[in-house]
C-alpha cells in the first residue's frame, strides 16, 4: 500500500466530511444584499432592528426546531437529504478505510470495492444536492425575504453566501477521493518512466 496516497486520502476524506457537516448547519448559503437575512439548509438568520437603529441578527432552525418538515422548500428538503447522506457515506468510508488494515486478506478486495462505490455515489449525491438547492429559491418563504422576482436559479435581492461556496469547494475536492483510493495500491516504481535503449 502506498502510504503517502493513503494518508492524503484519509486526510482529504475526513476534511470533506467535516466541512460538509459544517456547511449543512451554517446559515450563510444565501445572504440578502444588505446582509440582514441569511439562509442555509437547516438554519436561517433574521435581522432585527433595535431602538438605536442597530441591526441584531437572530439565528435559528426553520420552524424553531430541527426537523425535515420544517425546512420551507421541498427542494431544500431534498438537498438536505442528499448532502447529509453523502456526508454520512464519506464518514462510513473513513471508518472502512481505517478498518481495512485490521481485516483478513480475503475480505480486503470486497471492502476496498465497497469504499470505492460508496465514495463515488456520495460524490454524486452531494453534487445533486448542490444543484437542487437553488431550485428552492422560488419558494414563497425565500421570495418573501429576497423579493418577488426570485425564481429557480435566480436569487433576486440575495446572493450566494460563503457557506454555499465552501460546500461547492468541498464537493469539488471530493471528486479526487475515489481516484486516490484507486491509486493507493500503486507502488512508487510504477510511477517512474523506464528508459529503453
TrEMBL record:
- Which UniProt key words apply to this protein? Membrane, Transmembrane, Transmembrane helix
What does the entry list under GO cellular component?
Answer: membrane
- How is it placed in the membrane, per its record? Multi-pass membrane protein
**InterPro entries per the record?**
LHFPL
The answer on whether this UniProt entry bears the keyword Membrane reads yes
Where is the protein localized?
Membrane
Transmembrane residue ranges = 7-31, 80-103, 115-142, 162-183
**Any idea what this protein is called?**
Uncharacterized protein
**Organism the protein comes from:** Mytilus edulis (Blue mussel)
